[in-house]
Design a protein that fits this description.
Blueprint: E1 2-5, E2 8-17, E3 21-23, H1 33-43, E4 47-49, H2 57-72, E5 78-84, H3 95-102, E6 110-114, H4 120-134, E7 139-147, E8 165-174, E9 182-188, E10 196-197, E11 215-216, E12 222-223, E13 229-230, H5 232-253, E14 263-266, H6 271-281, H7 292-295, H8 302-309, E15 320-328, E16 332-340, E17 345-346, E18 350-351
Parallel strand pairs: 2-17, 2-18, 5-6, 5-7, 14-15
Antiparallel strand pairs: 1-9, 2-8, 3-4, 7-8, 9-16, 10-13, 11-12, 15-16
Length: 352
């Protein structure tokens, strides 16, 4: 699916992470030094942030959103609040309503939750752009937040070290600037939905006594059916097979020039995959910022987090073109190409 939207721009981006930094040494309780070094070499991950047991995705999200609302003094201008997460506070009610009240937004605010994963930021951005383009006045606030540490098995080598917690908030508004068009592309392959999944806890497989019984797979990973499960090989193969041709087709569809894209913000899945995508597209490594070494895979938050942590690279006094590329659970993959300039405020990273 291709989509283009004119007259909308990103006005502000803020991200928050827990203060609790968890280095790879933490996992020595079930992994050897040799295994940890191998993990670091493949993934590039050296640390991640984990929330406290009492904190939720909305707590992280609140801090990022509050920074924008307070600084921009736009509370009464926000007409829609989108909250995107796989680790929302409750099954019922949806988390955007909770944040609407906590942030003091008007009761006339449209509140919408989206359940999406690693491609979620681009998917959510499309919904936010679409909403914003139809508003006669006011702004849209897109929030993406994940506390993936809460769904990881402590002795699962395929997931326990890969993920981290973070949240982002993005404020959108209308613009009359030239070259304001944002281009989107979306793809889905639900036939492989089990590649990244939690089998129990929904209504297909409700939680029962057996849900908490741990089992060990052929690779020695120990988990129960309420923990995140990932077929790393399947996800790896899917990413290397689909992303490069999909992005090339997307660029060709809109007669865009790959060489005129200033930065490629890839979902921070792992260092090796990002390197392979960079080579496959034949783009300079200088155009591909990476922060996975510090924050690990934060699912849908990883792209806006990359905007924030690497903001000193961009020099938006001169407008820049960005390609945002997400891929993962679903299986879904999505891309967006847009322009950012000095009109956007990118805040320093918030530690909670």
């Amino acid at each position: 699916m291709y989509q283009s939207i004119e007259g909308v721009s990103i006005e502000a981006v803020a991200c928050s992470v827990p203060k609790n930094r968890v280095g790879n040494d933490y996992f020595k309780y079930f992994m050897s030094d040799r295994e940890i070094k191998k993990f670091e070499k493949l993934t590039g991950i050296k640390s991640r942030r984990f929330v406290a047991s009492t904190s939720t995705a909305s707590d992280l999200a609140y801090e990022a959103a509050l920074k924008i609302i307070t600084d921009k003094k736009c509370k009464d201008e926000i007409k829609a609040l989108i909250f995107l997460s796989q680790t929302s506070d409750y099954k019922i009610p949806f988390t955007s309503n909770i944040l609407q009240d906590k942030l003091g937004l008007p009761t006339e605010t449209l509140c919408l939750d989206i359940n999406a994963g690693c491609a979620g930021f681009v998917q959510g951005l499309s919904v936010a752009y679409s909403l914003q383009s139809t508003l006669s006045e006011g702004k849209v606030l897109l929030i993406v937040a994940e506390t993936l540490s809460k769904i990881l098995a402590k002795r699962d080598k395929s997931t326990s070290m890969l993920f981290g917690d973070a949240a982002s908030a993005v404020l959108l508004g209308r613009t009359t600037q030239v070259k304001s068009t944002a281009f989107f592309n979306f793809n889905s392959d639900g036939s492989h939905f089990e590649a990244i999944s939690i089998s129990d806890g929904g209504y297909r497989n409700p939680v029962n006594a057996n849900s908490f019984v741990e089992s060990v797979d052929i690779n020695g990973n120990c988990r129960n059916n309420t923990h995140l499960s990932m077929d790393g090989s399947a996800v790896f193969d899917f990413t290397l097979r689909e992303i490069v041709p999909s992005l090339n087709a997307f660029i060709s569809n809109y007669s865009l020039d790959l060489n005129r894209i200033d930065y490629f913000l890839f979902h921070q899945s792992n260092k090796f995959i990002i390197s392979q995508l960079t080579k496959g597209l034949n783009i300079p490594v200088e155009k591909v910022p990476v922060n996975i070494q510090e924050y690990a895979n934060t699912s849908g938050v990883s792209i806006p987090l990359l905007m924030v942590t690497e903001k000193t690279l961009y020099d938006l006094n001169t407008p820049k073109t960005f390609a945002l590329v997400g891929y993962g659970s679903g299986l879904n993959w999505a891309s967006c190409i847009l322009r950012l300039n000095e009109a956007v405020t990118i805040y320093d990273l918030i530690e909670v």
